[in-house]
Amino acid sequence: MLDTDLKAQLGTYLQMIAQPIELHIAADDQPKSQELLTLAQEIAAMSDKITLKEVSAERTPSLAIGPQATAPRVSFAGIPMGHEFTSLVLALLQAGGHPSKADPALLEQIRQLPGEYHFETYISLSCQNCPDVVQALNLMATLNPGIHHVMIDGALFQQEVEEKNIMAVPSVYLNGQPFGQGRMTLAEIVNKLDTGAAERQAAALNEKEPYEVLVIGGGPAGASAAIYTARKGIRTGVVAERFGGQVMDTVGIENFISVPYTEGPKLVAHLEQHVKEYDVDVITEQQVTGVKKAELIEVTLASGATLKSRSVILATGARWREMNVPGEQEYRGKGVAYCPHCDGPLFKGKKVAVIGGGNSGIEAAIDLAGIVQQVTVLEFSDTLRADAVLVRKAESMPNITIIKQAMTTEVLGEDGKVVGLKYKDRQKDETHVVDVAGIFVQIGLVPNSEFLRDTLELTERGEIVIDSHGSTSMPGVFAAGDVTNTPYKQIIIAMGSGATAGLGAFDYLIRN
């Protein structure tokens, strides 16, 4: 089951287990059960602190993990490989007493949560967003005896997925009811359960001393800016909804110079680790609602708190553009999706559409073609904007159909899920219907700058206008990355833009 390299890596980690643990395996004669049984046996054979026990369970195959002589509260329904292999390793270590690196205050908050919480998380093994949610809930179950969590591979338990009408992952259920969908951090989940947390956090943020530089946004541009200012020895803070920004939703990265290949979550982990090498105050789970110039620059948050700083760097990035047609919002997460890697496996053997003929759209079509029955690509223009090599690959695949000059006009649905879409042939001025179960929207980016419309100079597209030093139209406020009018929205360019803004802010401070 495990190759030589994986066994070597796992063996190193298993040496960190401090207390005996027990694996409860529920398996039958089916091939997937036997795969999971083999995996469990290999793991148990690698450490004298791990024992294996065959049991019956609600779902088969499944693997539950817990300290010896206790009922396990963490389990995997399916085979936790692919992106979830890390979740398996962490579950083994945490059950074995290896401490988490999460914020100690947050860990104590989890321990103090009252009540019983039974979480179920439906995932796909190709989803890069799912492990964060799985690992967060596994940790919570490890720390608090009132919390139980099971990861469920949607591709393996398709009947459950269909019964619950799950068409996007991760989908989290709490005590049998929908709890959340999409990427969620540990802090987000805990704060959703702890109703008094937001007020306590807002009060604590209001008490913070003013910064010399406050970076808004935790993506590549924000991380770069924070590192550059912190290295100058000035008081630096970062405030963001989540660390990593849109890069967390990026799978393969092959144009990051000096690194032939990496993945978004891995790059973000390295960025966060680098930022925390310095004395940077990182504040997450906070949405910025305004920036205004007073004696200092004041940054207001949705929680009601206000942070103050002598200078500010805006690095709020961009998000996927939506179609803005009838039915899109109604069926979001019920067939309308924005991440083919995450949600593609849920449409196995079905017909889907991809909206957009740029690199993202054609790459999505190629990826999906290996899973689904048929992919229809709809491109607004009369030409595809994707690289020629991608276009040739897509055109060579028998189950990809490309329609140009097609304007999507409506998402069609029945019984709470997508059943098709309408588009207008712009050349013939005719309306057509395509029967699909899923629609993957890949039509570019929108800058996250709405809260700045009446504050800074923006382009018609909503991008923040900056000069060669990263300065905006407000003295002391700088900007960097995809939210600005810098051409070419690329990770490496955003990092350079962040460095420029950081140095620009430093120069502003020493001159003022």
From TrEMBL:
Residues 211-498 form the FAD/NAD(P)-binding domain. Pfam families: Pyr_redox_2, Thioredoxin_3. Gene3D superfamilies: 3.40.30.80, FAD/NAD(P)-binding domain. Residues 123-193 form the Thioredoxin-like fold domain. InterPro entries: AhpF_NTD_C, AhpF_NTD_N, Alkyl_hydroperoxide_Rdtase_suF, FAD/NAD-bd_sf, FAD/NAD-binding_dom, Ferredoxin-NADP_redctase_2, Pyr_nucl-diS_OxRdtase_2_AS, Thioredoxin-like_fold. SUPFAM superfamilies: FAD/NAD(P)-binding domain, Thioredoxin-like. It comes from the Bacteria. Keywords: Disulfide bond, FAD, Flavoprotein, NAD, Oxidoreductase, Redox-active center. Belongs to the class-II pyridine nucleotide-disulfide oxidoreductase family. This is Alkyl hydroperoxide reductase subunit F. It comes from Marinospirillum alkalitolerans.
